[in-house]
Amino acid sequence: MSQVFSKIPASAPITSSCMNYVHPWTDSCLQAICGLYLYCIFDCLRIYGSVYVLTLLMKGRIPTKNDIKHTLYGILQSTAFLSGTGFGYSLFLCSLRKLMGNFNILTVSAIPAFLASVFSILIERPSRRTLLCLYVSNVATETVWNMAVSRNYVKNIKYGDAAIFSSSIALLLMYFKGGHHKKSGNEDSMFRVLRFVIGPYEEKDYTSSRSSQANSFYRQQEQNDGRSRSGSWQRSRPKTNFVLHIVNQMLSIYKKIINKIKCCDRHHACPHPFSCLYYTMQGAGKMFSIGLGIQISLKLLLNMKSIFQSPANVKRIIWKKETLNLASFLGAFSGLFRSVSCILRRISGKDDPKHAIPAGIIAGMAFTRYPDTTVSLYVLWKAAQVTYNIGIEKGVLPKVPGFTEFLYCFSTAILFHAAILEPTNLRPSYWKFLHSISGGRIACMNRIPLDAWGLNTSESLRTVLAQTKTVPVVHF
User: Fold this and answer.
1) Is 260 helix (H, G, I), strand (E, B) or coil?
2) pLDDT, position 206
């Protein structure tokens, strides 16, 4: 690629004015700062207004006065947080330029973003800071990896997403089986997801002394009741409707098969009711159905316009091979984890939380059916967070005050640095977010002076604008 300037060391500063780089659309720093801040406020009100109102409606009840008050306060507080980041970023860019007389590789974006984040994150509620930290750390990790790949420091690994997901989810599953999530008294949302996917029986101390006798009795009762109901139905129902009779016979046969599967062998160390075979099949079937329902619903929702134009498009939208990807992943993950756990319990003769490591790794291989970098990195950072919290509770790791806030600010600095100097390494969705929240200003900042560092910044910007279909136009 051609470069406007010859390469200079990354440590060398560039003597460019604020107008030539930060805000070429105006010669006033104050006007640029205030313009960005006002646009951020209105756009943040739109974003957080939709998010908080939707959250309020999803509660499924008529909102009370306190609910409305809490929602309005949350909208205003989150708007102040996010718009404050935009205000601080522009403010520190111009201020550091006036203070130092030039820009360097750090002050061109990273340090202003870090300083702006330090002040803005303190505005947001403490309960939301961890979620924000996990999100930006997720995107920043992917960005750093892309930067390393573009420099040929590392190479992309086939099924790397699945490897990250498998190892991370195995660690979380071990904590889940070991009951670590209950000791702090504040259960993480990730463990609620795991309970839903793999079932509550794998949780520590789920079963009690009554479980073995109750399960055996219940299995026997189910078998007897199934036979008696099917027999009485066949005797009492006249065979006047042939189709209905066939359906009833099929249901009766299905029920007998299920009852036989339920009453197959179950190891005494297994905490679940019914047989291990039924336990595996039930988990896989349930999660496959849920995954298929989610995928079809999303496809129909996202293609609503084309469906209204031609209802015949429904068949074309649904009947695609990729429609089964999410269902295959969820079903295989649940089924593999349950089956491997049962096998390990039979081999060892006990239920051990460490069984979750091999079971989780094997089940995580199903992630190859629905690979997603965002999901794998989120699980990785969630595993790191939970491990850190457990280490603090056990006294193994020290509690570092403000670590969450620092990690958020550091990750944000990486993202803003990449957005300015090498936007092709930034996740496209995050670039669109920055473009939207800044009213196009992030694309209008003049990259030509930055080409002196040899990162092909201007060319990278043109590539991203074409890929994301964004335009370098300042909106007011």
Assistant:
1) helix
2) 67
DSSP-assigned states of every residue in 326-364: HHHHHHHHHHHHHHHHHHHHHHHSS--GGGHHHHHHHHH
Joined together, the tokens standing for residue 356 give 């979750």
- Which tens digits make up the pLDDT trace of 198-215? 988 888 766 543 344 445
- Per-residue pLDDT of 236-272, as tens digits, reads 444 457 778 788 888 888 788 878 888 888 888 888 8
In this prediction, residue 43 carries a pLDDT of: 92
DSSP annotation string for 136-150: HHHHHHHHHHHHHHH
Which of 279, 317, 321, 281 minimizes the C-alpha distance to 298?
Answer: 317
CB distance 114 to 413 below 8 Å: yes
Tell me the pLDDT tens digit for each residue of 109-148. Answer: 999 999 999 999 999 999 889 999 999 999 999 999 999 9
DSSP lists the bridge partners of residue 11 as none
Read off the amino acid at residue 14. Answer: I
Which one, of 144, 137, 130, 81, lies nearest residue 411 by Cα?
Answer: 137
Pairwise CA distance, residues 23 & 16, whole Å: 12
Give the pLDDT band of residue 24 (cuts 50, 70, 90).
Answer: very high
In the numeric block, the tokens 């335009």 are attached to: 471
Phi, psi of 256 (to 5 degrees): -65, -40
Which candidate, 51, 18, 17, 49, places its Cα nearest to that of 36? 18
- Say if CB 15 and CB 107 are below 8 A apart: no
| Mean pLDDT (whole number) for 372-381 | 92
Residue found under tokens 């670039």: 431
Binned at pLDDT 50, 70 and 90, residue 1 comes out as: very low
Return all residues near 375 (Cβ < 8 A) that are at least 6 apart: 165, 367
Is 82 within 8 Å of 40 (Cβ atoms)?
Answer: yes
Residue 103: φ, ψ to 5°: -115, 145
Contacts of 141 (CB under 8 A, 6+ apart): 377, 380, 381
Which residues are within 8 A (CB) of 106 and not within 5 positions of it... i.e. 6 or more apart? none
Cα 394 from Cα 108, distance rounded (Å): 42
Q: Give pTM, 2 decimals.
A: 0.83
393-411 core/surface letters (b: 16 or more CB in 10 A; e: else): eeeeeeeeeeebbbbbbbb
